Amino acid sequence: MDCYTANWNPLGDSAFYRKYELYSMDWDLKEELRDCLVAAAPYGGPIALLRNPWRKEKPASARPVLEIYSASGVPLASLLWKSGPVVSLGWSAEEELLCVQEDGVVLVYGLHGDFRRHFSMGNEVLQNRVLDARIFHTEFGSGVAILTGAHRFTLSANVGDLKLRRMPEVPGLQSAPSCWTALCQDRVAHILLAVGPDLYLLDHAACSAVTPPGLAPGVSSFLQMAVSFTYRHLALFTDTGYIWMGTASLKEKLCEFNCNIRAPPKQMVWCSRPRSKEKAVVVAWERRLMVVGDAPESIQFVLDEDSHLVPELDGVRVFSRSTHEFLHEVPVASEEIFKIASMAPGALLLEAQKEYEKESQKADEYLREIQELGQLPQAVQQCIEAAGHEHWPDMQKSLLRAASFGKCFLDRFPPDSFVRMCQDLRVLNAVRDYHIGIPLTYSQYKQLTIQVLLDRLVLRRLYPLAIQICEYLRLPEVQGVSRILAHWACYKVQQKDVSDEDVARAINQKLGDTPGVSYSDIAARAYGCGRTELAIKLLEYEPRSGEQVPLLLKMKRSKLALSKAIESGDTDLVFTVLLHLKNELNRGDFFMTLRNQPMALSLYRQFCKHQELETLKDLYNQDDNHQELGSFHIRASYAAEERIEGRVAALQTAADAFYKAKNEFAAKATEDQMRLLRLQRRLEDELGGRFLDLSLHDTVTTLILSGQNKRAEQLARDFRIPDKRLWWLKLTALADLEDWEELEKFSKSKKSPIGYLPFVEICMKQHNKYEAKKYASRVGPEQKVKALLLVGDMAQAADVAIEHRNEAEMSLVLSHCTGATDGATADKIQRARAQAQKK
């Protein structure tokens, strides 16, 4: 254990810092680090190098090379730089490389050197050129801050949603500031800069002079400044060799340290652990590395070669041509367990486990000591936590074995934390492998989340490892394996050296019917890569027509889209394609396309009936569909024409169409309607009143109600209305007029073709029993009983029923007998029934 703490360095009395090697770098650097622009992404991200055009002269013919490596030095991309001079490099939160050029244009590249996009920081930056730039991160995304040759600042807080802000001018600023940085306070990006002994804070509205509280006197210039990883703390390096540390708001001082070195440092970054009370800053010169904090002494390391510092959430990565190391504060759990002569529960449990492996009785003594103090659960938890913060698998296993050993002596210790730590460490050890090159710590992994880590593995095209992690952690398919396979398929379609058939087959064999995978998204990526035929083949595997059709329309495969929409049975989808086709094709081609698709043609006709009547007529004409054309003209005659002449002309056109369709009935009916319209117009002119648009029956009834009986009869003869229908019409009309005298004359004009029971019913409907009785006596024998019952003559109805010896009629009369008033009638019927039964 003493050997294990050999690389621990105390900073004051309460904290230790250690530096251990992550990787031995085997990269083949073409330039020294000091001659390059260097950008390293946090969370174990990649490293980008580009020869600094301002630091080292090269022959004009030699173009710089942009190189991208993993954190372990494995080459990821290399491309010849053919654009303008680059001032600064930086990585976005999505691991996209931002290259800020002297002309203010920012080029964005992917992890593998693929060009993504570019944007400009504005005309003012273009005119005045870029002196310096910073890439910073906020909760909204990744931002870019620019210092121009006019000594003005321009920034965008989110390059994904570019909104440029020109910061206020600093009064009297005639030269570049000695140092500056971007701060994020209250969800707003600010610029802090030093001009001589003065500090200025720029926000979107004003320039404010600020003074760090408790700053040592005699400062004439600030040489370097550093903001912490979380943007909560700020460090200032002065020309007097003092390092001031405080809050980023410059309202509180944490500590101050005199390093006795006045030379400006090459880099200065914060090195602090989340939730730690200790705050430290790492300062680097050419061959010296110093860790300072709230302690009278510092920790110093010798740098054998050019090095670069990368601030992390819980420490600092230090890489050079040959090594990549991690410097951080020793976590509390590790310190408790491993510090010399520690009697912490975790330390005793670790010793107990080691003694147990040696089969020594000391294991029992250590365990008893922990149990007597009641600290065994705490000891197990300490070992589990410390295992998470260890980089080397052997030490992780040793601590986890100790935790497992301690759990055996606890009845109700929840296993979740132990199992979860084992899973997390397996994942971390896998991604820390040299060939993967993502040296995440446990704290970084928890902050980053497993979903983001999987995204980063996908970004590196490490699909097998990502899938293995998903399966090991048993993540839901939609969040895990399915999503990764979809990314793999999108990458696969970009391999243009493989035929479309082979790519489509390989994707389908790998994906199959995996839930959560959209073949349409993959096809869209293929189409974006210029592989239209591959996209169509992939869409064949897409089960959802709603996803197929929009992409087919986008690819200008409208006829295929129409076929797919029809197969789906989704009428809304068919209408969408039809409207697209209508705008895309000329009228003739559009109609020919519809002719080959009966369902589409039918739906389009329905659409035209409500929206485009003229188009509907053209469709019928093209198809020689005279039957529908006739129906169209009939509807048009009433919908569009107000003049009687126009309507008659439209009906004539309809009749001609029906004759062509060999529909004699429809043609004759249409001609009859034309005759009726002309007659109705004449009646209106002669009699007044409203006749137009009435039906034939209503016209006859209106004439009768108007007292025009002869005209009504003539109309009935002209249109061959049957006698029965005419008698019904006249009967109803005269009863509505209550013209009983005329009704009686009408009933005696000749024998009624409808009988006389309707007369009785109509009179009773008008509540005129007197008139009804006149006709009841004239009703035929078969309906006599019913007529007598209608007028309320129960006794006579009973006599007729008995006379007819009709059981049904007698039952009908009995059903109408009520109370004592009809008792005699009911008895008479009952006696008649009894006599009939005796016979």
Automatic annotation (TrEMBL):
Compartments reported by the entry = Late endosome membrane; Lysosome membrane
Q: Which keywords belong to this entry? A: Coiled coil, Endosome, Lysosome, Membrane, Protein transport, Transport
User: Do you know which InterPro entries this protein is assigned to?
Assistant: VPS16 (IPR016534), Vps16_C (IPR006925), Vps16_C_sf (IPR038132), Vps16_N (IPR006926)
Provide the transmembrane region boundaries.
Answer: none
Protein's UniProt keywords contain Mitochondrion: no
The answer to whether the entry has keyword Membrane is yes
Q: Which domain of life is it from?
A: Eukaryota
Q: Which residues form the Vps16 N-terminal domain?
A: 4-420
Q: Provide the Vps16 C-terminal domain boundaries.
A: 517-835
> Where's it mainly located?
membrane
* Coiled-coil segments on the chain, per record: 349-376
| Protein's membrane topology | Peripheral membrane protein
Protein's job: Plays a role in vesicle-mediated protein trafficking to lysosomal compartments including the endocytic membrane transport and autophagic pathways. Believed to act as a core component of the putative HOPS and CORVET endosomal tethering complexes.
Q: Which PANTHER family match?
A: VACUOLAR PROTEIN SORTING VPS16 (PTHR12811), VACUOLAR PROTEIN SORTING-ASSOCIATED PROTEIN 16 HOMOLOG (PTHR12811:SF0)
Query: What family, per the record?
Result: Belongs to the VPS16 family.
Task: Give the protein name, as stated in the record.
Answer: Vacuolar protein sorting-associated protein 16 homolog
